[in-house]
């Protein structure tokens, strides 16, 4: 834990860390150091579980098939002074065909967002030694493979990348942080690629500044209703009427459909040309690499190596 720079924010977390450290020491003593993969995203409901929580995965099923942990607190609630540990197996997920892991190297599938961002991402893979020359051929093919490296790239619509990764059709993908925040998909966000930088902002005419101060009900137009809702309800504690739009959001305040908008600002020129400005900044955004939750467990070493090389490109 020291090695990964983790720290506890409260005593309960400190206890969990201590317990985890003990488990790790035992595993290291038994020669399993290479098999330890501390995944903080797997923290289950800690009001229910205490100490250890775990998940189980099998090849070919894109989500966990088993989940459990230690739940002494539950025993406490039913007045039983006893420790308890258990897990549930999701039989419905196991009913789907389970892929066999053969001894050959499995293919890592990478979903690239079609367009300029995707081309930049591919160039990054290439620079890190994960090339696939056939991808540069000019045709309408969508899928390209480098058998030797065990890598397959495919072009998908940018807004579909995260669903391919969540469902396990792709092991790895690249999406904007805006999509991740809006969709809340069950994927691991593993790397900030540092490009496609922009900001999620509340924008509107200068006169709308006052409306944001008084916590009165305002109308907010956005392509990102979840982000807008989360910001106004949970950060600003302001009641809002959210109007979902699919594009040209800047029009909202101009034609009085809304008071303000929540949208991406990159250069700021769309705002300027429409007489609007940034009123509040919600968060910075950039392109992120995401990994399927099961792939991260099953192909840990290869995926870690890939991340490491991409970081060092
Ligand atoms: C995005 C965003 C803004 C604009 C910001 O729109 O929704 O409108 O880019 O960029 P800027 O600050 O550099 O002007 P997009 O181009 O995706 O089109 P859309 O409005 O139709 O969604």
Task: Compose a concise summary of this entry.
By secondary structure, this protein is an alpha/beta fold. The protein contains 12 helices and 14 strands.
How is the topology of this model organized?
Layout: H1 11-29, E1 53-56, E2 66-70, H2 72-77, E3 85-89, H3 91-94, E4 108-113, H4 116-127, E5 143-146, E6 151-156, H5 161-166, E7 172-176, H6 177-183, E8 187-192, E9 198-204, H7 209-213, E10 218-222, H8 225-235, E11 240-244, H9 251-254, E12 260-265, H10 269-273, E13 277-285, E14 287-292, H11 293-298, H12 300-311
Parallel strand pairs: 4-6, 4-7, 10-11, 10-12
Antiparallel strand pairs: 1-2, 2-3, 5-6, 7-14, 8-14, 9-12, 9-13
Bound molecules: 1-O-pyrophosphono-5-O-phosphono-alpha-D-ribofuranose (PRP).
1-O-pyrophosphono-5-O-phosphono-alpha-D-ribofuranose binds at residues 247-250, 263-270.
Task: Write a structural description.
By secondary structure, the chain is α/β, with parallel strands linked by helices. The protein contains 12 helices and 14 strands. It has helices at 11-29, 72-77, 91-94, 116-127, 161-166, 177-183, 209-213, 225-235, 251-254, 269-273, 293-298, 300-311, and strands spanning 53-56, 66-70, 85-89, 108-113, 143-146, 151-156, 172-176, 187-192, 198-204, 218-222, 240-244, 260-265, 277-285, 287-292. The strands form 3 sheets. It has a 6-stranded mixed beta sheet. Strands 11-10-12-9-13 form a 5-stranded mixed beta sheet. Strands 1-2-3 form a 3-stranded antiparallel beta sheet, with no helix packed on it. Strand 5 (143-146) and strand 6 form a beta hairpin. The mean pLDDT is 88. The structure holds 1-O-pyrophosphono-5-O-phosphono-alpha-D-ribofuranose. The site of 1-O-pyrophosphono-5-O-phosphono-alpha-D-ribofuranose (PRP) has 12 residues, from strand 12 and helix 10.
């Amino acid at each position: 834990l020291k090695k990964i720079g983790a720290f506890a924010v409260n005593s309960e977390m400190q206890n969990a860390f201590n317990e985890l450290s003990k488990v790790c020491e035992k595993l290291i003593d038994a020669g399993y150091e290479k098999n330890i993969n501390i995944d903080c995203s797997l923290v289950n409901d800690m009001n229910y579980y205490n100490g250890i929580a775990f998940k189980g995965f099998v090849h070919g099923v894109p989500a966990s098939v088993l989940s459990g942990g230690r739940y002494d607190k539950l025993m406490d609630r039913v007045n039983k002074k006893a420790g308890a540990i258990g897990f549930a197996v999701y039989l419905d997920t196991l009913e789907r065909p389970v892929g066999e892991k053969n001894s050959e190297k499995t293919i890592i599938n990478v979903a690239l967002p079609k367009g300029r961002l995707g081309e930049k991402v591919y160039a990054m893979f290439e620079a890190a030694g994960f090339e696939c020359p056939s991808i540069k051929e000019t045709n309408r093919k969508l899928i390209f493979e480098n058998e030797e490296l065990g890598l397959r790239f495919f072009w998908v619509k940018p807004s579909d990348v995260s669903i391919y990764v969540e469902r396990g059709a792709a092991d790895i993908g690249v999406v904007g942080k805006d999509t991740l925040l809006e969709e809340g998909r069950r994927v691991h966000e593993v790397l900030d690629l540092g490009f496609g930088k922009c900001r999620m902002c509340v924008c509107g005419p200068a006169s709308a500044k006052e409306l944001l101060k008084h916590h009165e009900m305002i109308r907010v137009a956005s392509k990102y209703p979840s982000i807008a809702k989360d910001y106004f309800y949970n950060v600003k504690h302001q009641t809002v009427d959210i109007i979902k739009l699919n594009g040209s959001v800047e029009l909202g305040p101009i034609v009085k459909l809304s008071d303000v908008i929540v949208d991406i600002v990159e250069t700021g020129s769309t705002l300027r040309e429409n007489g609007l400005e940034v009123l509040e900044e919600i968060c910075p955004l950039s392109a992120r690499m995401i990994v399927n939750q099961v792939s991260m467990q099953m192909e840990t070493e290869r995926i870690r190596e890939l991340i490491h090389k991409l970081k060092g490109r």
